[in-house]
Amino acid sequence: MKFTKMHGLGNDFIIVASEQELPEAVSTLAKQVCDRHFGIGADGLVYLLPSNRADVRMRIFNADGSEPEQCGNAVRCVARYYYERISDAKRELTVETGAGIQRVWIEGDDNTQVRVDMGNPILAGLQIPTTVDGERVVDQEIAVTAEGEGQSYFFTGVSMGNPHGVIEVKDVQHFPVEKWGPLLENHPIFPHKANIEFISVRSKNEVDMRVWERGVGETLACGTGACATLVATSLRGRTERQGTVHLLGGDLFIEWQESDGCVYMTGAASFVFDGVLQG
Ligand SMILES: N[C@@H](CCC[C@H](N)C(=O)O)C(=O)O
């Protein structure tokens, strides 16, 4: 199996370009190849496939083998891969994902920056999905217990195609993400589980974010998580509708445009190496 290792701000993927449908045991394969000791090592396995609705289609599998609907960092990597390795005919592309078709622009002289129209965020409680039946889920209390210690947090729910719970904390750099992340990801208020963003707001246009990703664990960056964060902080009046989200692996610029209601994400997509996996 030929593959290419890529990353978006340290959120790393094994990219496989294929003309065929996926192998039957793709979920088991994802677990094997994403393993950082016995496999290649990555946060996700991404298939780049032909599409009859867009320039290219992507399917992604988390490191635990589950298939999420969307992945912002992978969309940028897939677009750059397609532009540099398959067709450089145009710098505006479309990528079909499990959450719809994303418009993408390859930017900069070296193609390293990629801008993506991530579409309209979903804010209605049951559609995110959460078990909260409301038009919006803002500052909703959520209680968890770890090692006998009970804790309440307040999350804002946003779906960018995949579900997110955004929680503001005092000092995100020192926050115990590993302790509370898995409990919140699996809380019954999220019927499909959720990605959990822990954030601290620096100013009206800057937010620090760490993420506990559904099906993966703590990662260095999450594109959909950064989009969900800016939507949540602007809904709560903590930021404006555009700003920089500082992640452990680098920065993403996010704009939630008033005119079309869509969230635009701009950031890096990087090649690491090519390889062949022996059977
Ligand atoms: N890292 C991604 C999100 C990948 C999917 C996520 N783990 C899920 O299960 O929803 C991103 O950059 O958006």
TrEMBL record:
It is an enzyme of class 5 (isomerase). The active site is at residues 71, 222. One of its GO terms (biological process) is lysine biosynthetic process via diaminopimelate. The gene is dapF. GO terms for molecular function: diaminopimelate epimerase activity. Homodimer. Substrate binds at residues 11, 62, 72-73, 162, 195, 213-214, 223-224. InterPro entries: DAP_epimerase_AS (IPR018510), DAP_epimerase_DapF (IPR001653). The record marks 164, 213 as: Could be important to modulate the pK values of the two catalytic cysteine residues. This is Diaminopimelate epimerase. Pathway: Amino-acid biosynthesis; L-lysine biosynthesis via DAP pathway; DL-2,6-diaminopimelate from LL-2,6-diaminopimelate: step 1/1. Pfam families: DAP_epimerase (PF01678).
